[in-house]
Amino acid sequence: MPRVRVASLVVALLALPLAVAPAHALQASACEFSFVVTISPGTGVTPNKGTISAPLGGSITCVGEVSGTGQVGIEGTYGATTPGGGDTCALGSGGGTLTIKIGTTAKSGAFSFHRAGAAGAFTGLIEGMGNLRGGFAFQPTTGDCVQTKVTKANVTGVGVLSHV
Question: What is the pTM of this model?
Answer without folding.
Answer: 0.82
